[in-house]
Amino acid sequence: MAARLRTTGCLLAMAALCSLARAQGIADYPNKPIRMLVAQEAGSAGDVGARAIAPALGEALGQPLVVENRPGAGGALGMQVAAAAAPNGYTLAAIGSPQMVLPYVHKNLGYDLIRDFSPIGRYSVSHNALVVPVSLPVGNVKELVALAKSKPGQLNIGTAGPGSASHLAGVLFNVLANIEALVVPYKGGNSAITALVANETQYYVAPLQAVLGQVKSGRLKALGVGGDSRAPQLPEVPTIAEAGIPAYRSVGWGGLLVPKGTPAAITARLMEKLAAIIAQPAVQQQLVKIGVEPGLLLGAEFEKFMRADLERFGVAAKAANLRPE
């Protein structure tokens, strides 16, 4: 009996110590650098957005955020790595519109955005921009549509790959404009932009932050943006809706997730610090500078937004005749 009591007492003491250790770990969080996984290539829109907030978020948390690019399989590889990471707050997944497409492209992703992750927050929203080479003899959306209709199937539209966000945004533009073009997939957005500058393709719908530098430098022309209002970075460029395709909308966004099972106290701290830095004028200016706008949604509201975006991309995937492989 005494031995049994001693055993029970030891077990209770061990449990108490474990609970204390866990509580202490949360109280001390973070006490080492935090990894921010980006499932796109360096220089992509998602990468640029993540790097724009990483220094300020790291400073607010008291530990550096180390951005780690894990491209591959359209972004699925990096998300698989993030989903499998320890749920301890030391791995954040940077996410955006490209990840909304993946369920409609891959049968076996190896993860589920809602089941395997907990939302921290959306920090930015952005326009997609319809861009063309400076050598293309068009000056606005209507002239591009007229050119495409005069040469059915002869113009090339670039994409960042089959089933990418740019693919669906471009297909939606073609459908609403009632034009035909040859869809040319590339291995990522950077390659698609390089091809466009070289006039291998004649138009491309890309995240504004990915092409803003080329537009500002005069290497590309922006004919329209995909939001409900004009982009503050290019106020002279109309929305595609006002330029002649009234039903067209195409926007992007950036946010952060953590692996499911991350302690609530840690997710709450991450949400608190994310909200704090997005309210800082310097961070807001940095976001606008790279071509996006601050757009804060936290926790459950962010998850609700993601669910709606998944549905929206499902409609576009159907229009593009995408089938998961």
Rg from Cα: 23 Å
CATH superfamily of the largest domain: Bordetella uptake gene, domain 1
What is the domain tally? 2
Structural class: alpha/beta
Order of helices and strands: HEHEHEHEHEHEHEHEEHHEH
3D architecture notes:
With 325 residues, the chain is α/β, with parallel strands linked by helices. It is built from eleven helices and ten strands. The chain has helices at 2-27, 45-61, 76-84, 97-101, 141-150, 165-177, 189-197, 208-216, 264-278, 281-290, 299-319; strands at residues 34-38, 65-69, 91-96, 117-133, 156-159, 182-185, 204-207, 220-225, 251-259, 292-298. Strands 1, 2, 3, 4, 7, 8, 9 and 10 form an eight-stranded mixed β-sheet that branches. A two-stranded parallel ribbon has the order 5-6. Helix 6 links the parallel strand 5 (156-159) and strand 6. It is globular.
Brief summary:
This protein is 44% helix and 21% strand.
Keywords:
D-Maltodextrin-Binding Protein, domain 2; 10 strands; 2 domains; two-stranded parallel sheet; disordered N terminus; 325 residues; alpha/beta
Write the layout of secondary structure elements.
Layout: H1 2-27, E1 34-38, H2 45-61, E2 65-69, H3 76-84, E3 91-96, H4 97-101, E4 117-133, H5 141-150, E5 156-159, H6 165-177, E6 182-185, H7 189-197, E7 204-207, H8 208-216, E8 220-225, E9 251-259, H9 264-278, H10 281-290, E10 292-298, H11 299-319
Parallel strand pairs: 1-2, 1-3, 5-6
Antiparallel strand pairs: 3-9, 4-7, 4-8, 4-9, 4-10
Helix pairs in contact: 2-9, 2-10, 6-11
